[in-house]
Structures are given as structure tokens and as C-alpha cells.
């Protein structure tokens, strides 16, 4: 009889949503028939600020602005909740959840406000679509 093997990625995302973060050690997966996070169907290969990881994966939460970010290291997977899913709210994700230093975030917001304030202040060039 085949032994039941629950989907560890589904469980990890659920635990992360409840606790805010979770860690899964790769040694605990040895001998299991688990697929990789990218093969799970809902964790999509992604990018993140480099901190020594091998890969990044993200899961969008339907009906929510939040998302789960799974980071793969040599010996473990670490997951945390992003308050803004970068697929739904990329600018807010950069400002709120990213690892940009505070000065970088301030300059980023300042640049966006300048660009936003410039809209409509310059005459249109005839024949050019805006």
C-alpha cells in the first residue's frame, strides 16, 4: 500500500500565513517524494534581494494583497509573508516589503512624486501620441 505523502508546500504556505514566517530544513525532506517548490503549481519562480539564496519563489493569495515569499538556501527553505504581493502591487511592495535601505526608499518615493507632478506640465508634441 502506498504511503500518503501530504503536499509540504501547501502546508508551508498555510503555516507561514498563520505565523508570519516558517522554516523547513532540507534534511527533513530526505527520502520523501516531494516535488520542488516550482513544480508545486502555485509557487512561482521569482527574484528577490540576494542574501546568499539559491532561488526565490512566490505564491499569490487570492482575495488578498498579501503574498508568500519562499527563499531556498543550501540547507533550508525560509518563508515569510509580504504585506504587498509584488505581482499585484509592485511599487508598494518595493516601498513596504523590500530590503532597500531607508534612504533608497525615500529617494524612490521622491522620484515617483516628481514624475507624477510633471504629468501634463509640458506641451504635447504635435503628431505624437502620449
Describe the structure.
The protein is of the alpha+beta class. The protein has a domain at 8-85. It contains three helices and five strands, in the order αβββββαα. The chain has a five-stranded antiparallel sheet with strand order 1-5-4-3-2, with helices on one face. The longest helix has 17 residues, at 102-118. The N and C termini lie far apart (65 Å). The relative contact order is 0.14.
Can you give me a brief rundown of this structure?
The protein is α+β, with helices and mostly antiparallel strands and 130 residues long.
Q: Topology of this protein?
A:
Blueprint: H1 8-19, E1 21-25, E2 44-46, E3 55-60, E4 67-72, E5 76-82, H2 90-96, H3 102-118
Tell me about the largest β-sheet.
5 strands, antiparallel
* β-strand amount: 15-25%
The number of helices is 3
Give the number of DSSP strands: 5
Low-confidence stretches are 1-6
Give the overall average pLDDT.
76
Structural class: alpha+beta
Strand order within the widest beta sheet = 1-5-4-3-2
The run of helices and strands is HEEEEEHH
Give the end-to-end Cα distance, rounded to a whole number of Å: 65 Å
The gyration radius over C-alpha positions equals 20 Å
Helix content: 25-40%
Give the overall form: elongated
Amino acid at each position: 500500500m502506498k504511503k500518503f505523502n501530504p503536499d509540504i508546500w501547501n502546508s508551508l504556505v498555510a503555516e507561514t500565513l498563520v505565523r508570519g514566517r516558517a522554516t523547513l530544513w532540507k534534511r527533513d525532506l530526505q527520502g520523501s517524494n516531494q516535488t520542488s517548490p516550482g513544480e508545486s503549481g502555485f509557487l512561482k519562480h521569482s527574484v528577490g534581494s540576494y542574501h546568499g539564496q539559491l532561488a526565490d519563489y512566490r505564491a499569490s493569495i487570492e482575495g488578498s494583497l498579501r503574498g508568500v515569499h519562499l527563499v531556498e538556501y543550501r540547507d533550508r527553505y525560509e518563508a515569510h509573508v509580504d504585506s504587498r504581493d509584488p505581482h499585484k502591487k509592485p511599487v508598494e511592495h518595493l516601498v513596504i516589503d523590500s530590503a532597500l535601505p531607508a534612504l533608497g526608499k525615500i529617494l524612490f518615493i521622491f522620484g515617483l512624486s516628481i514624475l507624477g507632478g510633471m504629468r501634463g506640465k509640458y506641451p504635447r508634441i504635435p503628431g505624437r501620441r502620449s
